[in-house]
Amino acid sequence: MQNPDYQTRVIFGIDIAKGSSRARELPRYAVAVLKEGDVTHHKMVRLPRILKMIREEHPEYIAVDNIFELAPDKKELVRFLQKLPEGVRLVQVTGGLHKKSLIHLAKENGLSFNQFDPNEEAETCARLASMGVGSEVSLFEDITKIKVSRARSLGRGGWSQNRYRRKVHGAVRERSREVEAILKKASKEHGYTYTSRISSGFGGYVRAEFTVYAKRNQVPVGSGSTADAQIRVSSVVRDKIQYTPLKKLKRRPTIVGIDPGTTVGIAILSFDAELLLLKSIRGISHDEVVKLIAEYGKPAVIATDVTPTPGSVERIRRSFNAVISTPSAEISSEEKIALGRPFGYSNDHERDSLAAALYAYRNYKNMFSRVEKKAPQHLDMDKIKLYVIQGASIGEAIEKVSGLPVPEKKPVKVLETPAEDTEERDRKISEKLKLKDTQINNLRDYLQELKKELKAKDKRISKLELKLENMRKANHLQIRKDKEIEIREHKISSLKKDLRRAKKSLKKAHYNIKKLKQIRKMEIKGEGIPVKILPSFTREAIFEIKDRLGIKKGDVIFLQDASGGSSVTASMVVELGVRAVITYSDMTYAAEDVFFRANVPLLKNVRIQRVDDLAVVDPALLQEALGEWEKEAEIKRQEEKEKKLKHLVDEYRSERRRGLV
């Protein structure tokens, strides 16, 4: 590979070696590090490793032949650029909107490489960037956003919610004032401007947003957070990718479109309709505008999209002694969009300046074509076009550039005509002129009518727009009102449900209290005997009731569900020494037998009065039930004795038959 002149700086050349930025697997790259004329190659490197190398070496340029080899789309490309250190610039060596192939550029600049070797392609990119070939890729406006807000949520609240809210909002206000003080000082030193938008809250600020019209590295405020407030600083991403040539072109004549105002839009075109600059800058002075335009060439035409020419645009025109270009009628928004779409723009100021420059170029395009056809190819076409724009004829312009006189055309002999024919011809011409004058006057009258109609329509449109805006505001307020009502109705409905549940619970509580009072009254008068309730006939339930209610000897127990009982659980109840067991459900034979043999009455269908875990039984009813049980038990005991005696007699008879007695 041939070597050009080198500069003592670090440049990274990158070319994709394996995979794709759109594939799932991370691609691998070939990296060529150009430093003081020497090249170091790194093969099959992944992007995270490249970023680490960039932070270590801090190169001036990162040169690629296609920026989308580094990222699959604009969003990922923005993330990549945000990770680069300050001062490191991304360069697409093949150009911006109008690309040239890498092979073609290499030949133009005396380089050669193997296009199938990623390492050589990466080195070629680095060397071309070192020679000023290519365009810098810009994805960020010269605008920085600073947002100061709460660092944590205020939560659902409580007794101290207002004090906590005041503390957080006060912290946001304090940090906002600190940021504004820094911006005021920096704006005076560096000459940029900023705007602020503050949302007030209880005890301070909810948030504060600052828009600084300067690059991120010019703003002396960094992101950070405290316990209550946080600061987030970020650059504003452009709608379209902007490409700025590395090598400033020679002072070629240019066509400059200006959109004046607080934010100035500037578009600079060459005579070949190549976009050299498209930018919008807020708060820029007249001298700064002139200086910026002069960097891209000598303006031949200063264009604006409005008529008459604004005073600030006229001042810029006089600074360059350029020709002014204004449209014959106002350019519509649709036409501006159509003109600017092939180039792309970020805002209305850039769109208007670009439309003005392109409209002026369109007016001169035919003249440029005639110059290119008539002028010798070895002459400077731009200079000839410049002289023609300034008022010279094409022949005079060629003579000025070449220094040689243009051959004069042979005079054409005029044949004399008879006087009568001359008079007749003059009469006809006079009639035609009168007819043309009449047509012109009619057209002027028609034009005035159209202007009046247009003015009336504009006035009507303004009124309708104002009415529409008022309707939108009213509609917005109504929507907010309806939303608030819906939220409150939902809350009221929820509270009503809670109130119904509370009333139901309160009613039940009153009923239980009434029952408890009755039970307590019966106990005091001796009209009721306390009954302790056992919900289920299990070991766990028996232990739980014993621990909670303290079952002691002589207590009466109500067994709510006796179906799961056994002889073991029945024995546990017997061991407690209870006086009687009341139940409404069936019990196993084994459990009943345990209670019978332990002489513990098992009473069924004895009415009790119950409130939750407490109950009483009428002493008379209990005594009556105990008496009945005792009678039945006595009968059962007699039957068992008879059965036993009969069994003994039967056994004796059996033994006697066998001769044992």
UniProtKB/TrEMBL annotation:
Designated name of the protein: DUF460 domain-containing protein
Coiled-coil region list: 433-474, 631-658
Superkingdom, taxonomy of origin: Archaea
Presence of the UniProt keyword Coiled coil in the record: yes
Keyword annotations of the record: Coiled coil
Organism: Methanococcoides methylutens
Database matches in PANTHER family: DUF460 DOMAIN-CONTAINING PROTEIN, POSSIBLE NUCLEASE OF RNASE H FOLD, RUVC/YQGF FAMILY
Cross-referenced Pfam families: DUF460
Lineage: Archaea, Methanobacteriati, Methanobacteriota, Stenosarchaea group, Methanomicrobia
